[in-house]
Amino acid sequence: MQFEFSSDKTYDIIAIGRACVDLNAVEYNRPMEETMTFSKYVGGSPANIAIGSSKLGLKAGFIGKLSDDQHGNFIRQYMADAGIDTSNMVTDKEGHKTGLTFTEIKSPEECSILMYREKVADLYLSPDEVDEDYVKQAKILLVSGTALAQSPSREAVIKAVELARKHDVKVIFELDYRPYTWGSKEETAVYYGLIAEQSDVVIGTRDEYDMMENLEAGEGENEDTINHLFKHQPNLIVIKHGVSGSYAFTKDGEAYRGHAYKTKVLKTFGAGDSYASAFLYALINGKDIDTALKFGSASAAIVVSKHSSSEAMPTVEEIEQLISEKENQ
Amino acid sequence: MQFEFSSDKTYDIIAIGRACVDLNAVEYNRPMEETMTFSKYVGGSPANIAIGSSKLGLKAGFIGKLSDDQHGNFIRQYMADAGIDTSNMVTDKEGHKTGLTFTEIKSPEECSILMYREKVADLYLSPDEVDEDYVKQAKILLVSGTALAQSPSREAVIKAVELARKHDVKVIFELDYRPYTWGSKEETAVYYGLIAEQSDVVIGTRDEYDMMENLEAGEGENEDTINHLFKHQPNLIVIKHGVSGSYAFTKDGEAYRGHAYKTKVLKTFGAGDSYASAFLYALINGKDIDTALKFGSASAAIVVSKHSSSEAMPTVEEIEQLISEKENQ
Amino acid sequence: MQFEFSSDKTYDIIAIGRACVDLNAVEYNRPMEETMTFSKYVGGSPANIAIGSSKLGLKAGFIGKLSDDQHGNFIRQYMADAGIDTSNMVTDKEGHKTGLTFTEIKSPEECSILMYREKVADLYLSPDEVDEDYVKQAKILLVSGTALAQSPSREAVIKAVELARKHDVKVIFELDYRPYTWGSKEETAVYYGLIAEQSDVVIGTRDEYDMMENLEAGEGENEDTINHLFKHQPNLIVIKHGVSGSYAFTKDGEAYRGHAYKTKVLKTFGAGDSYASAFLYALINGKDIDTALKFGSASAAIVVSKHSSSEAMPTVEEIEQLISEKENQ
Amino acid sequence: MQFEFSSDKTYDIIAIGRACVDLNAVEYNRPMEETMTFSKYVGGSPANIAIGSSKLGLKAGFIGKLSDDQHGNFIRQYMADAGIDTSNMVTDKEGHKTGLTFTEIKSPEECSILMYREKVADLYLSPDEVDEDYVKQAKILLVSGTALAQSPSREAVIKAVELARKHDVKVIFELDYRPYTWGSKEETAVYYGLIAEQSDVVIGTRDEYDMMENLEAGEGENEDTINHLFKHQPNLIVIKHGVSGSYAFTKDGEAYRGHAYKTKVLKTFGAGDSYASAFLYALINGKDIDTALKFGSASAAIVVSKHSSSEAMPTVEEIEQLISEKENQ
């Protein structure tokens, strides 16, 4: 199966959701309490995917809300420099701050994050700041689940999805679940379910699908997930099982398995975002799903071996070289 | 066109949303400032529709949340006495109060209301209090737009609609727009649009459809409304134009017009709820749409001539008698 | 001991705090669930005290915030008609509603209330709406404890007390504790303590003093209370023990006991407010504390025998007649 | 005039309020947008004063609330290592985060900060977490104005001040005004006024006193300020006028002027906190007010020449050496 996109669109991908600041431990392999210096990067799943996509040569845009301060300015400049259209990144005028993520790297296996997400600017994107004329210019609208966590960002995303469907823009839903700012598990399940049913492609970890189905982590079955979602809009569903690799299912009944490539892991952050951008790059460029899965895995393998998420996003050449090396071993 | 319902269901209609207290001016034809005594009734659009339906002989149930106090107790008892199944009316345990509506009847043409809707119990119905086994027993799920105004009631309704569609329960969406408790017009439009597209039947005033379409009152056109909604789930759309009567449109292209029956008006409250219950009664009983429109108009005409909304709901005999009188004039 | 007041003031008493609507059961001696009709009165402790004072011939004013609707209009008109200066009763412009109190009279011994206090207008009085030129014209500033429950009303009261002390206005603190809208017992104790220490006269029930001292109800001792408060500003402390009567303590070491007058009780509401207005009337008119205690008790006895609180406030003649009858029995 | 303190106290100073994290630009003399690395320090005015005091040899304690995460752990450890008693620094259990301050050093004259203060742990210190047995052990209770910005921290401070006065603990009020998290200027003025009137010593900039007096910046006069405050509890008032130096006024009518020492300024942060700790050190050690003013100025001069605030706090020797150098020039 190949995935078809409208050919008459200005942007390959427009992402909607948060663009934040990551503060990555300069001294790592230690608890954060002992980390005394932090490096600043752009972060946030949809921002990372837009940056990763742009680095792969896709034409990317972004819909989001930035704080009216030094951190917001930094993000806008960084993303513009990365080749992303920032014309629909609005500036918050009510004093909301940029979201922050401090990363702790105790060891490659023990990474954790400390997030600042109280009243952050990205969650204040409002539906009237989502422009129909912009959304309709994209082949793909990339939706991050975290943008559904609170109003008015939640309604902005629901509107964007509605507009995408109206204008033949494929909706890709990256579940990207973060426990912060959500009111309850039931509420999460309601909105994840609502958007997943209206999306063309859904990508997430098995745990994230469990959250969507209001199950305890580990209770869900891929079979049930695809049986339910294929009754609705989706025709491609990607379920990631960590080091066991990932599965892609299509509405016409095919199933594909992707394998994780072994690499020297520095930290686990950024794996999902780099996976998504490379996977989508492959789809948009007409590659088959097997190849897209390899692109995703290779891109993730490269990012987890480096210090940042956004800065470390690979080029097509790097991805293809890694695939070539790994497949020929 | 006739509307078909599943025949193997326990309930004709289950309504979801608010059940409140109306405090109606005992002394009327004067400003509320001069009204010194108020009579207590059950109120709230979906409660009124459930009561009206039950009085017409339908088997009705209700999903809602009641305050843990004298007003909540009163509502539960009144609705049970009216023959409604109250097993899914849960009692709030966090101190939320019953919504109140004081009515002011200056003259038949000048009626206004004063609503207490801050943190009212009905808006705290949560998705885990919506029971799949209950929803699936209904021919009709009657959704009131006001229940979408705030979380978690909003999510409870989204879940109920999802369950209704899963189990072949017809979703009837009564727009029932109240400006209170909504955050913004944009937010209102997002959720009204979302639920309308997933409903089988949508009923509302022209002004309410304008709200759904994020237009100024008076800007909307029936043609545009039905063109949009018929691309989605709805196959019957009722648009009410006050004294000019109402229109019903079906997906297969038919249009029907209903006329308002002239009557001695005491106040305008309750007209919409009595209309909806009689219209739905007619549909469920296999009557054609022309007849359903007459039932709605007759029921409304009876209620506006009386003091209360819930207490005044007519019987089938009263409705048929009024139609007979009016059509033979 | 006699209490001295400045003689060059325009107002005998200016009360600050809530003016609300009481909805009293027309049919009583039954649970509220079975009460179908309610009569409307002005209510709220400081409003009742202002009305009671005015009826006794004192020149009264009021600082408060009213809803911009029919209930707010009614209160303003009623209080103006009662002879109270309403020039400092501001109208809320942000949609806050008038507080409501439904009363339930099951029997003279079993009275309860159901209060609507969510985002009510009176709690939105802000410090810039407290006018120094107005406060300084009063002999007495009457502060109700409930006005301390939330910001900005809390700060408005703190400011009013500060201004009163600056301009030689006696501060009378009626503890008037209502559990609604307070955040926690600790918070309550902090603000009750703060204002009590800055007041000249403190009036409350033993239970209310326990709340002020962050004790469980019944734990407090009058001895401890007066020992603490007399280290600060107060020089007269009234502690009410319900049917056992009330005690007045003065800083110079005197103690007085007042007895409750037996009467045919219809309900218990309004007893405290009528007590306070008659007690203060007596003080202002130079009567000794024994007489003031009798005035308080007599006024309370009259109000509990009638249906309303505000409407039932007695005249001086009625009070003196009751005292005369009771003392000569 | 010399200031007398109780001699039988365990702690010289107990500070109450916020202990936060500063993230100081590693690369400076540039806009923060271009700063890519930040160094982590303990920050927050009362924490800095406690650290500065401890470094000067005072026995210091702290009452505050820390986040239950890596930043909270870091602060607790750092302060314990600095010799401060942390037994009354409680850990927040509701997910509140540590406050953050990013510093921007464009030039010595252009320093600004970017604060994260939404729902930060320090503002959730509650009155029941203020222990009477702890407060009473201090010679000085150091109160930071920012701790008054929100409930329940506000009530915790009001209670602490009440306890201090009860147990003959001197209350030192550092106005430390930060615009964040305060509701309004009026509200700020109410609480600043309330606490200032109950304090023994008040320290602040002229602008901060203007805020306390609800004036526009620059409108206030020292004369008016001291006339007002000396009617209440304070007997020493310090008003800082930036580079023009500072004034100290005593209730018995004396006035002192302190001069700022010229130094090579790297940034202006931390000047006030280092000033306060050295000034209080001098008072506690029985030095006269002239000397205390010199200690304050010298300590401030040292800190503004270094990169951090807390780390840079000087020793007594450094202060005395600077004074000696400057006075002998």
From TrEMBL, chains A, B, C, D:
Name the enzyme group at the top EC level.
Answer: transferase
- Which PROSITE patterns has this protein been placed in? PFKB_KINASES_2
Instruction: Name the UniProt key words of this record, in alphabetical order.
Output: ATP-binding, Kinase, Nucleotide-binding, Transferase
Which pathway does it serve? Polyol metabolism; myo-inositol degradation into acetyl-CoA; acetyl-CoA from myo-inositol: step 5/7
EC identifiers of the protein: 2.7.1.92
- Transmembrane region(s): none
Q: Which domain of life is it from?
A: Bacteria
Q: Name one GO molecular function term.
A: 5-dehydro-2-deoxygluconokinase activity
Q: Which SUPFAM superfamilies match?
A: Ribokinase-like (SSF53613)
Q: Name one Pfam family in it.
A: PfkB
Family in the record: Belongs to the carbohydrate kinase PfkB family.
Recorded hits in NCBIfam families, A to Z, give: myo_inos_iolC_N
UniProt function note: Catalyzes the phosphorylation of 5-dehydro-2-deoxy-D-gluconate (2-deoxy-5-keto-D-gluconate or DKG) to 6-phospho-5-dehydro-2-deoxy-D-gluconate (DKGP).
What this protein is called in its record is 5-dehydro-2-deoxygluconokinase
